[in-house]
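Shipment paperwork, digital attachment
Item: protein structure file
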Amino acid sequence: MELLISNDDGIFAPGIRVLADTLAAAGHGVTVVCPDRERSATGHGLTLHKPIRAEAVQGLFAPGIQAWACSGTPADCVKLALGALLDDLPDMVLSGINQGANLGTDVLYSGTVSAAMEGVIEGLTAIAFSLTSFKARNFQPAAAFAQALLETLTTSPLPLPMLLNVNIPAVESGAIKGTVIARQGIRRYVDLFEKRIDPRGKTYYWLAGEVLEDVVDIPEGYEALAQELQRLPDFATLKGIPTDVQAIRDHFVTVTPLQYNLTSLLGLHHLHRWQAQGVNLPVCPD
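Attachment content:
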């Protein structure tokens, strides 16, 4: 299988090196295009107002792996690779292995997930891999899981391009209880802005967030509407499916399918019901 691998931790991150080398050793064709420095939490940002540069990198990866360091964001890297650097489209786009979790609402900020999502936008199946620790350095179990997952997808292909967001618990292999298909949960933070003064006496702020461990599954005020939605046939299958946030706490590897269509089905149902009750939407004045 021909693979394009990117990340948001940068070209020198150990996670991408272990992933790329492991998959190359398994017989896959591997091309790496990733940021030339850490670009975490950049979301799906693109570089529009300055040129993007890409330089070939030698010696960081196993022989046979082509690698480029790109000056842009993670999404830039994949877009550039697919549109300019590669002669042919890869079979799949991978991103990671990220240093730290990408669970719940983290995916909205994640450069790792956005790099993979760029592949889906171009019609390719993509997988984002994250090791749920900022301190752990053993990426080999996560890379071995990635290799096994690719084997599964080879024998049982997905019916359409989608993004699989995979999080691997940063625990000993024997402590991992298994793998679950999970739905996206909610991960909230207490945003702490630390106020500082620079050497010239000017104020600046440093953002640091602390994750809230007591995470609710349904936002406050949505309970009644969510219960009504769960009774609809299309949503019956969601019952009993764990969230990625909770499953990781229970030491399961989580696999969550994501899409770039952000339409709220909960909101769509409510607004249609709203109209059925005679509420008229406003129109633009003449």
